[in-house]
Amino acid sequence: MQPIVRIQREDFDLAAETGRLREGSRDIGAIVTFSGLCRDEAGTLAALEIEHYPGMAEAEIGRIAEEAASRWPLLGLAALHRYGRILPGENIVLVIAASSHRQAAFEAASFLMDYLKTRAPFWKKQHLRDGSASGWVEARETDEEAAGRW
Amino acid sequence: MQPIVRIQREDFDLAAETGRLREGSRDIGAIVTFSGLCRDEAGTLAALEIEHYPGMAEAEIGRIAEEAASRWPLLGLAALHRYGRILPGENIVLVIAASSHRQAAFEAASFLMDYLKTRAPFWKKQHLRDGSASGWVEARETDEEAAGRW
Amino acid sequence: MTDRAVKLIYFAWVRERIGLAEEHVTLPGGIATVRDLLAWLQARGDGYAEALKVPEAIRVAINQDHVPHGAGLDGAREIALFPPMTGG
Amino acid sequence: MTDRAVKLIYFAWVRERIGLAEEHVTLPGGIATVRDLLAWLQARGDGYAEALKVPEAIRVAINQDHVPHGAGLDGAREIALFPPMTGG
Prior knowledge:
CATH class of chain A: Alpha Beta
Number of strands of chain C: 5
Number of strands of chain A: 8
Helix content of chain A: 25-40%
Strand order of the largest sheet of chain C: 2-1-5-3-4
Radius of gyration of chain C: 12 Å
Distance between the termini of chain C: 41 Å
Shape of chain C: globular
Number of domains of chain C: 1
Oligomer: heterotetramer
Shape of chain A: globular
CATH architecture of chain C: Roll
CATH architecture of chain A: Alpha-Beta Complex
């Protein structure tokens, strides 16, 4: 099972990516997907701008995916992350984990997101609708705690 | 937030169902989907036949969904379950949970599946490819344990 | 306690062993709980005895809601008997 | 320890405060660890001082792999400095 890792400016398609994973095995009993979306922050956000470290972003998510694949009996794993300008309601990240049983799929997807949040080199800048303020999103301590539980 | 519950013979579409939930709110930051698929059991399975208790199936999944909605701050929740003859590789069940943050979406989807497994009135019968044997799938003790952790 | 008319519904291997999907019965006085009902049904024939020989393996719903074997039957219109669920 | 040429890369507000996305520098002898590097960079100008004034807020990767501030710089070709990540 070779994890799929893609870092791209373009949007991605949940159905197409999930379909690709399903074709890989007839023994898949459970597929968990996580989609991370750009929230509109109660109407105040104009856009997010996502900066990333080309090369390391792919490498780091690849390392996290390999770790997930070594911990759970997975039949498919994909992690896709966008960069550039992203509008409210649009996709930012997609993680898909497939396994024979649901617990492995749930845990692997949740693990991958927790680690991706705290270790993958991406940074979000907010552009506000009224133009009055904008700034870099601060890291949440709860994300560190979430990654610490694995 | 009114949970969507559907029990149907026909297949359902992950992208369409997820899209419907996304339209409901611009404050969704996380969507977790769980797809339960019919495994081919190493090529031995011809089909699953799923029996259900009409009326109670909807009512029970509705109760589980309401419980999930009262425990987590959800912006969308859907649970769809098929009945009738289902072939290897086909969908059996789909759960979607949407929230502002990922932990609520992961936990609600996982909770809903654990309870659905042990409380929703569905029964699976296996039809084997060689016709030599078939029988009712036995309940797994690990499913009871999984439901017990919530 | 007077006689009560109820609809019984069977699913999966309970249905197959009893040989019926549903039936209407009149419960005699003295059948107060789910446990009483299971014992009474076991005496109705070989299929019933076979289906219900391990009572603790049987799940019960009254009016489409799960109940334990100690539950009373007051107000029951529809009583369903079935094996542990295997959906999802 | 001899002088070493490395590429430094900055991201997010570290990049903005320093005013550079990347630069090539020659590290003088005596700069053995990430901690030494951060102290040396702080003295390069106001932008650097502002960007690095709280060193524990700075994450560091050597050759595209996360390292702690105590890590040595041997073999480093590309050293990246950035704030805590906020992807996902």
